[in-house]
C-alpha cells in the first residue's frame, strides 16, 4: 500500500502529514506494509527541508521532519501510489488535472478520513504559531482514520 500527501509547496502541510502518518502507522504495527511520501503541486521549494515552524510544531508532538525534502508531483506518482491525498481543494483540482485516464488511485481530500468531508487543511504558512498547531490537530485525526481504512484493506488482502 502506498500513500502520497500533496499540498502546494511541500514544506508545511504535506510533510507534516507524512511525518504524523508514519508515526500512526508505527503505532498500529503497519509501518512495514505501507510506503509514505509527500510532494507539492509547485516546484518552488524542491529539495528544501520543511518550513522551520512546521518542523518545530511537529517536533513538539514527537514527530521528526528533519530528513524530509520537498519534491514536486510527478506523472509516475499516479501509477505508483494507491492514495493521492490533497490538503485543499486547489491541490485536489491540480491533481485531478494531471491525472491520466485509467488511474486507479484514490484521489481525494485528506480530511475526509477525519470525518470532515470536503474540508481543507488550512495553509498555516502566512499565519501564526496557532495555525501550525491546528494543522497538526487535523492531520492527527485524519491520520488515525486513514490508518483504520488501510488496516481494513490490508486485512482483506490477507484473506
Automatic annotation (TrEMBL):
It comes from Billgrantia tianxiuensis. This is protein-tyrosine-phosphatase. InterPro entries: LMW_PTPase, Ptyr_pPase, Ptyr_pPase_sf, Tyr_phospatase_low_mol_wt. The keyword Hydrolase applies. Residues 1-149 form the Phosphotyrosine protein phosphatase I domain. Signal peptide: none annotated. Gene3D superfamilies: 3.40.50.2300. It comes from the Bacteria. One of its GO terms (molecular function) is protein tyrosine phosphatase activity. SMART domains: LMWPc. Its EC number is 3.1.3.48. Belongs to the low molecular weight phosphotyrosine protein phosphatase family. The active site is at residues 7, 13, 123. Keywords: Hydrolase, Protein phosphatase. It holds the Pfam family LMWPc. The keyword Transferase does not apply.
Amino acid at each position: 500500500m502506498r500513500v502520497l500527501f500533496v499540498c502546494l509547496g511541500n514544506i508545511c502541510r504535506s510533510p507534516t502529514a507524512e511525518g504524523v502518518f508514519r508515526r500512526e502507522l508505527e503505532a498500529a504495527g503497519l509501518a512495514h506494509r505501507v510506503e509514505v511520501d509527500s510532494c507539492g503541486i509547485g516546484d518552488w521549494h524542491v529539495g528544501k527541508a520543511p518550513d522551520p515552524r512546521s518542523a518545530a510544531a511537529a517536533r513538539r508532538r514527537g514527530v521528526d521532519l528533519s530528513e524530509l525534502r520537498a519534491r514536486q508531483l510527478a506523472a509516475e506518482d499516479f501509477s505508483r501510489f494507491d492514495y493521492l491525498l490533497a490538503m485543499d481543494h486547489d491541490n485536489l483540482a491540480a491533481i485531478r488535472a494531471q491525472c491520466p485516464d485509467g488511474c486507479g488511485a484514490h484521489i481525494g481530500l485528506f480530511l475526509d478520513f477525519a470525518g470532515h468531508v470536503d474540508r481543507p487543511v488550512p495553509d498555516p504558512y502566512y499565519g501564526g504559531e496557532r495555525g501550525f498547531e491546528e494543522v497538526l490537530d487535523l492531520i492527527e485525526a485524519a491520520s488515525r482514520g486513514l490508518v483504520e481504512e488501510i488496516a481494513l484493506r490490508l486485512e482483506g488482502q490477507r484473506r
